[in-house]
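<purpose> Linking amino acid order to shape
<body> The protein record starts here
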Amino acid sequence: MELEIREINKRVQSESLFLQDLRKEIGKVIVGQEELVSRILVGLLGDGHILLEGVPGLAKTLAVKTLAQAIDATFSRIQFTPDLLPADLTGTLIFHPKDNIFQVRKGPLFANLVLADEINRAPAKVQSALLEAMQERQVTIGDSSFALPELFLVLATQNPIEQEGTYPLPEAQVDRFMLKVAVTYPRREEERMILDRMTGGHPPAPKRLIAPAQIVSARKTVGEIYVDEKIKRYILDLVFATREPETFKLSQLRPLIRYGASPRATIYLTLASKAYAFLSGRGYVTPEDVKAIGQDVLRHRILVSYEAEAENVRSEDIVRTLFETVEVP
């Protein structure tokens, strides 16, 4: 077993070298936001969709577009609005009277990276069309289903402060996002760099460094990263603590949690931890990997109670308490 771990570790160190150049290339356009870039790479390597939450102007769209250019991937940006229809995402059948046939016209979902901008501004029928693409990796047009690209990732944004004219995302859809990333303001010195870079007349553009096939290959290596039994138990303890807090000496959380995390939390926390270890050039997962990515995996999977809302307790606060209390292996 030790020999296998050493071999995996050696392979990961070799195959993850391209990430240094990729981060550097993204950094030519995006100032700061290291955590945002890191989480997007985790989703890309762990094959999990990402929900980005933050006020406008924090480079969410720019970060996704820059990544797509750097990995030579196809990119689609869909601006979600209340009058959007499912066919605007998936595509539709076009009738050609001359030939008396229907021809499929594929929609913007047929891309490697799909940016669903302000996703909570579209109604439920559009959300359901996106749900099939996210979960089944296919799109149904008419009576035929079409497979999406092997490298397919949905990155959705939503504004946390403007709720007028929005449609809350169904819990079933929120649960299908591997990560929910809270995007914050840049520091003062970073914003000064943004000022100089974006007002100089020639905004920087990234070079194409790698091909999507290299990401697909890296994903296979991520899947082989070693996770010890103690780490697996730790992940299970964290998830079950959201459902049975009393078992983990967290009785004070029982009135604050309406519903705990689903089994997808266990799966995604493991996959995201593997991807985070790959980012660090390691072939094995440590408790620090789980802690580093855990907040982003769990924050949208815990439904707080009315009592928690009355006490101004957020799901992030509950997750923080879990990591402080659940025993680390």
Notes: The chain has two domains: 28-83+109-215, 225-325. The chain is about 45% helix and 15% strand.
